[in-house]
Amino acid sequence: MRNRLVVANWKMNGSLASNEAWIKEYATLTKSQDVEVAVCAPFVYLPQMRTQINEATLPIALGAENCSAYAVGAYTGEVSCSMLSDIGCQWVIVGHSERRQLFGETDQDVAKKVKLAMEAGLKPIVCVGETLEEQEAGNTVEVVCRQLNAVLDAVGASALAENGAIAYEPVWAIGTGKTATPQQAELVHAVLRDSVESRDSVAGKKIRILYGGSVKPSNASDLFACNDIDGGLIGGAALNPREFHAIVCVAQSLTETVI
Ligand code: PEP
Hints:
This protein is an alpha/beta fold and 259 residues long. It has twelve helices and eight strands.
């Protein structure tokens, strides 16, 4: 049984004041849950978030939204995986479509980052997803398998299943309000799981595959109820602690149903 995982991706949003308000409000809503929850915040706010999560004793793991593809040295402006680990991060999002599209990250860059993240003890959330054009051309499966295979070639299926997760995020569904239907998403998730399983059957059953793309409290239960969807990577809705908490509660209620 895979434990569900719900991850917030705050992107380039937040301030000292609004982050504090978010934590305070979230703390009024929950103290514990069985599902795993992580918040990925901008680099500069990670120490603040770590302190406030600890002070409020919240069951939230801390994550970064990106990391460097280099380990150490003369890379001005970069933040290494070991630095993230050093300040208390447990998770890191790698290969988000905004990084691939706006900052030119290649499959090879993503694979390098995932490898370094694991070496530093971080758990990478490997994002894959097709653009609208790729979807319309019928290339979804080819694109997401190519993106995933670059990572599996670099770190292996078993390591990723043990120490990371995959997020399927169709680019056309991110921040657009258009969500993949549960059937559309499940189809791709099953293909991704098969890809991992074809390399290592235990890893295929174990790996958590999150769905991301305009997830809201109102559509989360249909998505999370699918066999191969193990939780969500949440952008816009995660900026509001009540909405994010409501999505966590959906994952929690499905976990209780299975138990
Ligand atoms: C994301 O960017 O990871 C994401 C899923 O965004 P949104 O939920 O806003 O579509």
